[in-house]
Each structure stands twice: as structure tokens, then as C-alpha cells.
Amino acid sequence: MEWKPDRTSEIPLYKQIANYLESRILNGEFPPGSRLPSERYLANQWKVNRSTVNNAFEELRSAGLVHRIVEHGTEVNRDIPGSGTKQFPNWDMFVKQGYYSPNNPLNQKIYQFIRTDEQIINFAIGELSSDLQPIKLMQDINSSIELCNDLGYEHIQGNTTLRETISEHMKTYRNIESTPSSILITSGAQQAIHLIIRGLLKPGDAVAIEDPSYAYSLPIFHSEGLNTHLLPVQNGGIDPDQIVALHKKHRLKMLFLNPTYQNPTGATLDLEKRCRILEICSKFGIAIVEDDPYSITGYDGASIDSMKSMDKDGFVLYISSLTKIIASGLRIGWILGPQTVINHLADVKQQFDFSHPSLPQLIAAKLLSSKHFDEHIMRLREGLKIKRNLTVRSLNNELNGIISFFVPKGGIHLWCKLNDEEIDENLLFKEALKNGVVFAPGSTLGSDHKYIRFTYGRVETKSIPEGIRRFAQSLKSLIPTC
Length: 482
Ligand SMILES: Cc1ncc(COP(=O)(O)O)c(C=O)c1O
Description:
By secondary structure, the chain is an alpha/beta fold. Helix content is 42%, strand content 13%.
């Protein structure tokens, strides 16, 4: 458990905080020259007054451990007792120079708040609420697993039984033909995207992504020096002709699509457009990444054919995961693609982490082949539909005419347009946090500031009306005419 001051202790809170920070300074977690987290951050994390943290910092200062710089923060002294004449590595510089760009600051803030405030109603994170996860089934499966004599590294493409099960699953649920040998198990769809970018592209390559899109929220595209070009998403998905225009200008190498119940818009690419995109890509030799974590959630059962099921020439790298249908914490995703690509990406993944952990793979294999899996999917679809309806009803009751949206037929997100274009996204975000609700601001998904995403699939059903009420209160407080 993360450290917190003990409110029952006789030692004053500021003193406990000073002692805790001192131990972290002395064991090198905050080395000489590094900066301590801000007063505001720590006060929020530990639910104490800023003056309490300030007193703790003062205590550290008088002990000669830190110095304070106006408008800069609190820095650990370079000459703390015992450090003598040592030269210290400049960790801040390493952090700034490192290969990966940091996440969007608003996304970082979201994770910070949901970790420290358990009462907050969380419409921000793209995962299932606990009432939609098959917890009992997972517990039963977990306790039935017999570990064999060997828990060595798994096959570099992933556990063989799991790949066989996924191959069956894709046939049953997505009408996709495959063999286990062309499947690579990954740590969620996120790692699959990461492996494709690192393993198949190089700096300067031109790729197209949807706008708005989940892909936009991944700084990896920019860390890798890719040139991303945007394809606006409408109700029926992107316009295929724009791919042609972009290709003529930039020579696209790859197209990243989330064509079914897209994150964040909930839009589904029309069948006709799917065929046209396959035709265009085969004419120009553009590879397609079909990111498909949501198609099974279709509330009315059957969903449109995946692009992979229509691809007979190996243009499509198909990605999916169990995050949106079982649980995000399992970290099971996969890529299906041409054998040479899978062999190479398995080799790259082996360089990252040797192999995927065995236990989640064993659980996932049993889950997907369980006789209760179908029932779970039926319950999931019903549960998501109830949440969607409740979210739509609550928004219509609270904010009719103030926001507009398209009602999705699957997935877990609702994409809303703020009709008042003058609303400041940052102010709205702050106001909502103050009122105990958090959502994903449009800018984190590549859109301008007029949009927000509500992930209703993340919220316990009973909390949805209250969450929307809190949001409505926050939004109305920023509209002068309300
Ligand atoms: C379209 C899309 N792709 C990939 C992911 C990554 O999910 P995971 O890595 O948990 O499978 C998400 C998560 O929100 C998503 O919406």
C-alpha cells in the first residue's frame, strides 16, 4: 500500500511527512539536485492542508536537506550530510532527454486524481466497471489452474493453448480465419500498436490515423518520429477518398483504423467504405492496422464484418484484446497478421520482455473456452446498453440543448459536443474535478476543445445519474446564461 500519514498517531502530520520525505531523500529516491513533488500535489495526494506540507518542507530545510526556490519548488541539496564531494548524475536531464515523450499532461492528471480520490466518479478511463467484469468466473478459473512442473519462459508468440483458443474465438465471434502460428499474444492492444510502430516503421514514415482517435492519445507515434496525418471521423467512419489524397501528398505507409464502435466517437465504418478502403490500400500498397477491441460489445448482437475477415491478401494486421470484454488488468491482447510479420514482432517482443507472463494467459485460455463465456458476453452487452441508455437519459435531462451527441450501438464511450464553443476545456476539467467527476477532454484524443468523452462503461450503473448531474453543474457554472 502507498504511504499515507497516520491520523491516529500522536506525531503531528507535518512531522510524519517530513520524516517520510527525509527517508526517501536519504535512500536515494530523491537524490541530490532532484526536485520534490509540489506542495499542492502532495497535499492533494495525502488529503492534508498545503500548510502542513509547507511545514514539512520547512523542517527538511532547517535540517539542511533541501532548499526552496521561489516559483521553482523544493530541491534536494547537493551537499546533504554524508554526500561529501560526490558528483551526482543529473536525473532531471536524463528524464528530459529520454527517448519517450511524456503522456499528455491532462491524461497524467486524470490518473493522478483517480488514484488519490476514491469518491470521484470516473468517466475517463477506457475500461469496464467491476460490475461488468466476470469476477466470479475468473476466480473459479484461477483456483482451478494447476501449475505444471515448469513455469519457465513461455513460447515467444505466447502460450500455445491460448493462441489456439483465440483462433477459435476469432472464427466464432468475428468470422476471421486464422491459425495459432500467425497470432502473437501481447500486453493488451496497446503493446500490439507499440510493437507494430517499433518493429515495422521508421522515423519519417507517413501514417494516417483517425481524428479523433485513441491512437492520438499515444505519444509513441511522435516519440518514434512518425509523421501522422489525420482522417476526420464522421458517423459512418472516415472518407476513403481522403486516404487517396493523403497518399498522393505524403506516400502513406500505414493506416491505423478502429473501425467498429470507434474510440472515442462510437462510430462504425460502413461496409461499403470498408471495401473501398481495402481496394485503395491494395492499389497503393498501404498496410492497414485494424484495431478492434470493441466489436463484440455490439448491443444488438451481430456486428459488421471486420476488415480482416474481408482481407484475403494479407493487407490487414488485426489487433484486439480482452480489456473491453473481460478486464483491463488481465493485459491480454493479440496481433494476427502475415507469418513473416508475426515472426519479426515476436522477436521484437522477446527483446522487450522475453515472453508474456504465463498466469494471465492460462486464465484467458480457460475463460475464452469456458461454457459460461457466451453468457458473460450476453450479460456484458445488456449491461452496457443499460449504462448507455441511462447516460443518454441523464444528459438529456440535465443538458438538453447544451451538448449534442450521437448514440453509439456498441462500445463503452459517448462522444459529446459542447454547443457553446467558448467553454474553456481546462476550466471545465478543473470544475468537474472539484465537483467529484472526471471525463476525458477532447484535446487528449486529438479533437479541438469543443468535445468531451464519457466512458459510461467504466461507471457503476447506480452512479451514472449522479456523475452526469455533477458534470452538468460544472458545465452550467461556466455558461453565463445558465
Ligand atoms: C481503440 C483502442 N485500442 C487500444 C486500446 C488499448 O487497450 P488495451 O491495451 O487495454 O487492450 C484502447 C483502450 O482504450 C482502445 O480504445
